[in-house]
Amino acid sequence: MEEFCKMLPKVELHAHINGSVSESTIEKLVATKQKLDHQFSFKKGSTATLKECFEKFRLIHQLTDNVDAVYQVTYDVIQEFCDDNVRYLELRSTPREVTETGMTKELYVDAVLRAIRDCEAENLDIEVKLLLAIDRRNGVQVGQDTVKLAQKFRESHPDLVVGIDLSGDPSVGDGRDFIPVFKEAKDFGLKLALHLCEVPALQETMDLLCLPPDRIGHGTCLHPEAGGTQEFVDTVLTHKTPLELCLTSNLIGQTVPDLDNHQFKFWYEKQHPCIICTDDKGVFSTSLTEEYQLAAVTFDLSPNDLWRLSLDSMNYAFCEEHLKEKLREKWKAAKPGMEKQFNLKL
Ligand SMILES: CNc1ncnc2c1ncn2[C@@H]1O[C@H](COP(=O)(O)O)[C@@H](O)[C@H]1O
Ligand SMILES: [Zn+2]
Question: In the chain, what are the domains?
Fold first, then answer.
């Protein structure tokens, strides 16, 4: 199964750049700093609180406080996903400014886009897009600025900047405050991927679900058994809003009690669009291959099921239809070799 999941062409739609930074990139970055001796990720099998997860991002942000580091992290993350046979990747990141190093939010996004372009120029077998993230801790004004920034960069890079993400500590603020900002983004043609109900959030959820977003991140507590409501479930089903599901992230962050109770099962059994994602492959010491494997073992999925999951994920990408068609050819091309190697019919 491990080999099958590795060889499988995959689609990653939920990856935060700074949470995806690998140990080897951390080592490069630490070498440029003095006196930095921290643990930047969780070991396999460990558990934490969401607060402790956010503490890791704060530590990583100290390393990526300049444009060279942001470029390096983005470049390395793309290479690593490509090595993991991810053929289509949507990265998301929160533009940050750091006065001391002269990094503005524009320069931040510029560094990310340069790294994507440089990987393109190397003809890597991966297509990469970018979503700009709104950190809910930073309030509406910053959210508004982020959408403006996304509009600006979409004009200069229409093929790369595809959407807006809402993320950050789910226990902070009220997502409804951002609704005008999301509507503006939508009007401008930007897609919306919102972290929703990562923890129980009765107040804001319904209004956000009714936007509706183009995809939901986590949706851990949407269903009644997890603190949500039947109305939430029905709304998601009606809109057919795809869910980005990140097993290891939810397990380490303890937003689910164990994998058997992960919301994947609930939605997958309803044949609702589910996308297996990593969230933060660096911080949670995982890879998309490992997430597929974990899903297979936990929910008793066959190679055929996994094949379907990865190929169907392409349907929910924020790119143009012609690119989706082109990418589906990769699955077609990989099929005979995989059927032969694993002695099965896909
Ligand atoms: C674990 N579950 C999660 N829930 C909510 N937001 C998360 C997250 N994991 C990551 N982020 C968001 O992504 C940022 C790091 O990447 P960037 O600096 O943007 O590239 C974090 O600071 C947080 O805002
Ligand atoms: Zn996330």
Answer: 2-342 (3.20.20.140)
